[in-house]
Write a structure and sequence with these properties.
The complex is a heterodimer of chains A (about 425) and B (about 400). Chain A has about 425 residues and is an alpha+beta fold. Chain A contains 13 helices and 19 strands. Chain A has four domains: about 100 residues, 2-Layer Sandwich (Uridine Diphospho-n-acetylenolpyruvylglucosamine Reductase, domain 2), CATH 3.30.43; about 120 residues, 2-Layer Sandwich (Uridine Diphospho-n-acetylenolpyruvylglucosamine Reductase, domain 3), CATH 3.30.465.10; about 70 residues, 2-Layer Sandwich (Alpha-Beta Plaits), CATH 3.30.70.100; about 100 residues, Alpha-Beta Plaits (2-Layer Sandwich), CATH 3.30.70. Chain A starts with a helix and ends in a 15-residue tail after the last helix. In chain B, strand 1 and strand 2 form a beta hairpin. In chain B, strands 8, 9, 10, 11, 12, 13, 14 and 15 form an eight-stranded antiparallel β-sheet that branches. Helices cover about 35% and strands about 20% of the residues of chain B. The mean pLDDT of chain B is about 90. Classes of the chains: A alpha+beta (about 425), B alpha+beta (about 400).
């Protein structure tokens, strides 16, 4: 029989004495306490650690910056945290080809700083860029305001290397933007919360940094007015990069628009915008409007419910009215930031059972319209609140995929949709 | 074989949400045709768009000249209704973004019919930009043209399209459609779109960069009719080969853009060595190369020689860090090359996806992968498929 100490010895020999240690309360996720932490130095060590853990029947929690460990449902079991902290290098910035190869443990900010040296960027504004890693960003499919113009991570990733539970290191995609050879595993890994494999390396397509930028803000009389303005802008010839609507309980509804262009282009578009929105006052924005989503996590977020919404843009007004009605009825305070893509972030503050009721009711309404509500932050005590909602009848196929990639359910067991 | 040609209706047009739902038999260009009056278009525009179907585009993750800026089919497919190989009907993705769970729609697009059959497709449409301008520049050779492209990228510009043709391709286009291109070593087409002020400013800059790299003639087309003329030659390039050769093979490979000069000179060397002419059309923005190997089937051995040359060119692409296919897919023809591009663990891992969707391997079983394995089987000695053992199917 393999004893715990034999397994531990094996893991220690793979990553080295200084990089294998007992977990502490700071390693908890959703009130579940893992026992051990391993910090592999490279892909091969990640694969070896997984293989060993998989064979020993341990449950593995992959971790990058640890900024989103509370996302998804609590793990059914958690034995070993596998940290990607040491896989933190930008391996190759092929700037003339607009591509970069980067290890999964590199932070978003480090990557962006490196890319900026040649006037380029990964066109994605994720949460907490100083701490969040590429692997975590991908695994959670995080996206911000730039999504409107540049797409999601699935549209920016062109290659991935995954370490599977059985220790296989598999690469898919490549280093070129255009590539249809084989299956699109990068898409599969994106948003999979590490349940199919641990991302160790990624190749992204890049975009140039803009010449100049301008942010303008305007207000709406009400939710319907805001939606009308958003749809009018979307239907216009403006080439804006981002457009969002934000508000809160009993507060004004404001909208912000981002232009990235040459100075000539900026002037022309501002003028066009003013003509289009003739009934609203368009003004230069305050600083920080584009971090409105991240700001939802300030101020005692431990007791709040924070969720990601997805609706059709033509139902933004209806959605905001719905939230207002349901939240007010239960005396729950709300704040939101919704992008013109129909993706939004919602924060709810109130008494625990009221929060649960509001989340569930709003989710039901959104799902009946083909949308979704995914809980990203739960207040302590509400761990049982399902993060995901329905995955539709494709759930059987998803379980099938999980069964193929990770038959022993080693990776993040129970954290994904449908109990995967 | 199941044909989707009769399922050719556009089911729903939702302009406020910029989404269109179609059956797979709908022709690519017809989607644009339907939404054009409202100022929208369907972005993935393969040169065959007047005849190719959305279902085919989904299977191959088709691109087109404008994918540098607008992305590929997968960027514009939000959801699918799919008939699985076992006959069940499921929905992947949907009309809203980021449906919870794995990105099954993303995996399905580009799977070449090996995972099931799409019966409905939710497409994203895009608003036509305010202005589109196309610049044509003549260079002494494709090397200078390539250097101009690098300068354009380094200057932080992202054109909507950048296309390159070599002299042989230009000659063919002239013979076929009288494109009136300058007779040069390397021709560049650069298209910019966006707000008028922006495009005008950037076009000046593109022109300057072309001149800096030795362009001896530059034309800028503005009106739609002018632009269509500029594109006519490029879009007709493949078919035009018929004017200068009785037969030809279209190859499809990808290389990092920076590898173009060395790959082109290698192709020229191979062409000389084999005595077969190769015309080159290049999506310079994303490195997708279409070498057109010209030959005469009536000459004994020449067809084989042409095929062999086209595979050697693919090997060049892999050696340069590229791909064996940018948009035409792997199918049966290139499945042996998959082993040159991917390792066994890579292929085994992709196979896991196939096993989840199609454990009995009913759906296009002979496509994409070099040696089909049964699901659950470990790699090793070849084991015949149950359909083979039962004498129902044959493996060719």
């Amino acid at each position: 029989m393999i004893t715990a100490s034999v397994i531990e010895e094996k893991l220690r020999s793979i990553v080295g004495v200084g990089h294998f240690y007992a977990a502490t309360p700071s390693d908890r996720l959703s009130r579940v306490q893992p026992k051990l932490v391993a910090e592999p130095a490279n892909e091969q060590e990640v694969a070896a650690v997984l293989s060993c853990a998989n064979e020993a029947g341990l449950a593995v929690i992959p971790r990058g910056g640890g900024t989103k460990l509370a996302w998804g449902n609590p793990p059914k079991r958690a034995d070993l945290v596998v940290s990607t902290a040491r896989l933190n290098r930008v391996l190759e910035h092929a700037w003339a080809d607009l591509t970069v190869t980067v290890e999964a443990g590199c932070t978003l900010q480090t990557l962006q700083e490196k890319l900026a040296e040649h006037g380029q960027r990964l066109a994605l504004d994720g949460l907490w860029p100083k701490r969040a890693t590429i692997g975590g960003l991908l695994s959670t499919n995080d996206s911000g305001v730039l999504r409107l113009r540049f797409g999601a991570l699935r549209d920016l990733i062109i290659g991935v290397t995954l370490a599977l539970a059985n220790g296989t290191l598999a690469s898919s995609g490549g280093k070129v933007v255009k590539n249809v050879a084989g299956y699109d595993l990068p898409k599969l890994a994106t948003g999979a919360l590490g349940t199919l494999g641990v991302i160790t390396r990624v190749v992204f397509r890049l975009h140039p940094l803009p010449h100049s930028v301008r942010t303008l803000s305007f207000s709406a009389a009400n939710a319907e007015g805001a939606q009308r303005q958003v749809l009018a802008i979307q239907d216009s010839k403006l080439a804006h990069t981002a457009l969002q609507v934000r508000g809160e309980s009993a507060g004004q509804i404001l909208a912000d628009i981002l232009f990235e262009a040459t100075e000539a282009g900026l002037a022309a578009q501002e003028s066009q915008l003013r003509t289009l929105l003739r009934e609203s006052a368009v003004q230069k924005s305050e600083k920080g409007v584009w971090s409105a989503r991240e700001d939802l996590w300030q101020a005692a977020f431990e007791n709040a419910a924070i969720a990601k919404l997805s609706v059709l843009p033509s139902t933004i007004a209806k959605t905001l009215r719905l939230i207002e009605e349901i939240a007010n009825a239960r005396k729950v305070q709300f704040q939101y930031v919704v992008q013109a893509t129909g993706l939004g972030a919602l924060r709810l503050d109130g008494e625990m059972s009221s929060l649960k009721a509001v989340v569930e009711r709003v989710r039901n309404e959104l799902e009946s319209g083909g949308g979704s509500l995914v809980v990203l932050n739960r207040p302590s005590g509400l761990e049982a609140l399902d993060a995901w909602g329905s995955a539709g009848h494709a759930i059987a196929l998803m379980r099938s995929l999980k069964q193929q990639f990770d038959p022993k359910a080693t990776l993040n067991p129970g954290r994904f949709v449908g109990g995967i | 074989m199941i044909s989707l040609a009769r399922m050719n209706r556009i089911l729903e047009v939702d302009l406020p949400n910029a989404r269109v739902v179609v059956e797979p038999g709908v022709i690519n260009l017809d989607v644009t045709g339907r939404v054009q009056p409202h100022g929208y278009f369907y972005a993935p525009d393969p040169s065959s768009q007047s005849v190719c179907s959305i279902g085919g585009n989904v299977a191959e993750n088709s691109g087109g000249a404008h994918c540098l800026k607008y992305g590929f089919t997968t960027t514009h497919v939000l959801g699918l209704e799919v008939v699985m190989p076992d006959g069940s009907l499921i929905h992947l993705g949907g009309k809203t973004l980021d449906t919870p769970g794995y990105d099954l729609a993303g995996v399905f697009v580009g799977s070449e019919g090996t995972l099931g059959i799409a019966t409905k497709v939710v497409l994203r449409i895009v608003k036509r930009p305010e202005c589109i301008r196309t610049l044509l520049a003549a260079f002494p050779s494709t090397n200078e043209a390539g250097a101009a492209v690098s300068d354009i990228i380094a200057a932080g510009m992202l054109p909507a399209a950048i296309e390159m043709m070599d002299n042989l391709a230009i000659q063919a286009a002239e013979a076929a459609v009288q494109a009136n291109y300058p007779d040069c070593g390397g021709l560049l087409l650069v298209e910019l779109d966006g707000p008028v002020a922006e495009v005008e400013f950037l076009m000046e800059h593109v022109g300057a960069l072309c001149r800096k790299n030795g362009a001896w003639e530059i034309r800028v087309a503005q009106a739609d009719a002018e632009r269509a003329l500029v594109w006519k030659g490029r879009k007709a390039a493949f078919a035009a080969m018929g004017r200068i050769s009785p037969n030809y093979i279209v190859q499809d490979g990808v290389i990092p853009r920076t590898a173009l000069p060395q790959v082109m000179s290698e192709i020229a060397r191979l062409s000389q060595e084999t005595g077969l002419r190769v015309a080159n059309v290049f999506h310079a923005g994303d490195g997708n190369l279409h070498p057109l190997v010209l030959y005469n089937r009536k000459i004994p051995g020449q067809e084989q020689a042409a095929e062999s040359l086209s595979y050697r060119i693919l090997e060049l692409c892999i050696a340069a860090g590229g791909s064996i296919t940018g948009e035409h897919g792997v199918g049966e023809e290139k499945k042996m090359m998959m082993s040159k591009m991917f390792s066994e663990p890579d292929l085994d891992t992709m196979q896991l996806v196939r096993c989840a969707f199609d454990p009995l391997q009913l759906s296009n079983p002979t496509k994409v992968f070099p040696t089909p394995r049964l699901c659950g089987e470990k790699p090793g000695e070849y084991v015949p498929h149950p359909l083979e053992s039962a004498g129902i199917a044959e493996r060719f």
